Amino acid sequence: MRLFVAFEIGPPLRDAMAALRGSLGGVRWTEPETYHLTLRFIGEVRERARQEEIHHALAAIRAPSCLLVPEGPGLFAHGEGRDTLWIGIARTDALMHLQRKIDTALTRAGIAIADRRKFIPHVTIGTLPRQFPGTVPSAAQSPTHSTALSAWMARWGATPLPPLEAAQFTLYRSVRGAGQPVYVPLADYDFGQ
């Protein structure tokens, strides 16, 4: 099963982000029930013993609670397919400390951390077609559409969203289907402090 560790995004932040749905044309909006901030993508883990090792490693983590402070929107441009539209979360000391503790606990449990890209805390709110005007400059694109994306980013970058006190983090299973993935919570972990 495909596993990852994340914070669930609940109200009031979830409701504020959900209010953005439909505010920009051409976006395939993420369902608010699936909003989350990934702390570590683990990947495919088939062996039951490995899954239990992951659970025990996460359960042993002690860290201060985290206040998730939203920042402006951003866009991850992918090489092909669809780009990811997201709301950034501030890299607070508590959040970065927890993320490092998760990596350390998983490494000590013998779980290889394949993805060593810089941790960019964010919550995905939608995807755009790769050819969406404004994501890749092109002479064939309408300047009006490019301006619409820029204006949307500027507007929502200047609009404050409510912070969220994270009381726990969760181990999830990602189930891919015909539509958007389904995220099944397997275990919740309190901070223990």
Automatic annotation (TrEMBL):
Where are the catalytic residues? H36, H122
The short sequence motif called HXTX 1 sits at: 36-39
Q: Which reaction does it catalyse?
A: a 3'-end 2',3'-cyclophospho-ribonucleotide-RNA + H2O = a 3'-end 2'-phospho-ribonucleotide-RNA + H(+)
- Per the UniProt entry, the Enzyme Commission number(s) are 3.1.4.58
Question: Per its UniProt record, what Pfam families does this chain match?
Answer: 2_5_RNA_ligase2 (PF13563)
Q: What is the top EC class of this enzyme, as a single word?
A: hydrolase
Keyword tags = Hydrolase
What InterPro entries is this protein classified in? Cyclic_Pdiesterase (IPR009097), RNA_CPDase (IPR004175)
Residue ranges annotated as motif HXTX 2: 122-125
* NCBIfam families tied to this protein: 2_5_ligase (TIGR02258)
- Known role: Hydrolyzes RNA 2',3'-cyclic phosphodiester to an RNA 2'-phosphomonoester.
- State the HAMAP family in the record: RNA_CPDase
User: Family assignment?
Assistant: Belongs to the 2H phosphoesterase superfamily. ThpR family.
Name this polypeptide is given: RNA 2',3'-cyclic phosphodiesterase
